[in-house]
Design a protein that fits this description.
Layout lengths: L9 H14 L4 E5 L5 H4 L10 H6 L7 E4 L2 E4 L5 H9 L7 H9 L5 E5 L6 H9 L2 E7 L8 H13 L6 E8 L5 H13 L13 H8 L4 H5 L3 H15 L7
Parallel strand pairs: 1-3, 1-4, 5-6
Antiparallel strand pairs: 2-3
Bound molecules: adenosine-5'-triphosphate and magnesium ion.
């Protein structure tokens, strides 16, 4: 889940799309690769001693925590901010996550990675380890600005470092009934025809409340719009023509 713009819904989407996949019976792992550790906090994990930092920088085993049936997380912690410097001085620094995930990927149907709001070495590790990218786009002013930077980066990676990387889709979030937000969604759809998910995530305060309570939306309130939207998104992806390998 990528966008270098902050606060667009990457973490909320990683958690709740991940949980929606697990409820569809798919073995799902979500990975927090953001030093802000919002994904970990949103699942009730605070300052985990064992987190992705030790796996990426100290060669320790990847700490996988089970949250629910078919639903696991690798947590992060503020430690991870140090990883950026350490990885930059390592010749294999861009490939660490790919190497780690190669060892466990056959255990899961989906691995979703929650990237930080930057296109630095942590996000690059995620992009190099991935088959697909979901670009999260908030329906607000200036949302479209900066998207080209992401697409240029993906193109560059496809030339060499990750030739099979594909954009799975762009996910419009925090849509509401205002003409303004709808017009932004229409602009994004028109500009990136065929690459925008049909499902859009409506603005729903319950999603924010669930994260603050350390819960996914299905555990917190499975009848709200947010739960409905992420279920629809999971179904759209599962029913799409994408060659998602089991
Ligand atoms: N559909 C939504 N409706 C209402 N609030 C939302 C929705 N999606 C996300 N939020 C809230 O918006 C804020 C930003 O969302 P989130 O943390 O998922 O974004 P992010 O892209 O991961 O941010 P960052 O770039 O800082 O990592 C959070 O407070 C979250 O609860
Ligand atoms: Mg986040």
């Amino acid at each position: 889940m990528v966008n270098h713009k902050g606060g667009v819904g990457k973490t909320t989407s990683t958690l709740n799309l991940g949980r929606a996949f697990s409820l569809e019976g798919k073995r799902t792992l979500v990975i927090d690769i953001d030093p802000q550790a919002n994904l970990s906090q949103a699942t009730g994990i605070e300052e985990p001693e064992e987190n992705i930092y030790q796996a990426m920088c100290e060669g320790k085993e990847l700490p996988i925590v089970n949250l629910a049936e078919n639903f696991d997380i690798v947590p992060a912690d503020l430690d991870l901010s140090e990883a950026e410097l350490r990885l930059q001085s390592d010749v294999n620094g861009y490939f660490i996550l790919r190497k780690i995930l190669d060892k466990i990927s056959d255990r899961y149907d989906f691995i979703l990675i929650d990237c930080p709001p930057s296109l630095g070495i942590l996000t690059l590790n995620a992009l190099i380890a991935s088959d697909y990218v979901i670009v999260i786009v908030q329906s607000e002013y200036l949302a479209v600005k900066g998207l080209q930077t992401i697409f240029n980066l993906i193109e560059k990676l496809r030339e060499n470092l990750n030739t099979h990387l594909e954009i799975m889709g762009m996910l419009i979030t925090q849509i509401n009934h205002t003409v303004f937000r709808k017009s932004i969604a229409d602009t994004v759809k028109a500009m990136y025809e065929g690459r925008v998910f049909e499902t859009m995530i409506r603005q729903n305060i319950t999603l924010a409340e669930a994260s603050a309570a350390g819960k996914d939306i299905y555990t917190f309130d499975n009848k709200c719009y947010g739960a409905e939207d992420y279920t629809l998104l999971a179904k759209e992806i599962l029913e799409s023509r994408l060659p998602v390998e089991a």
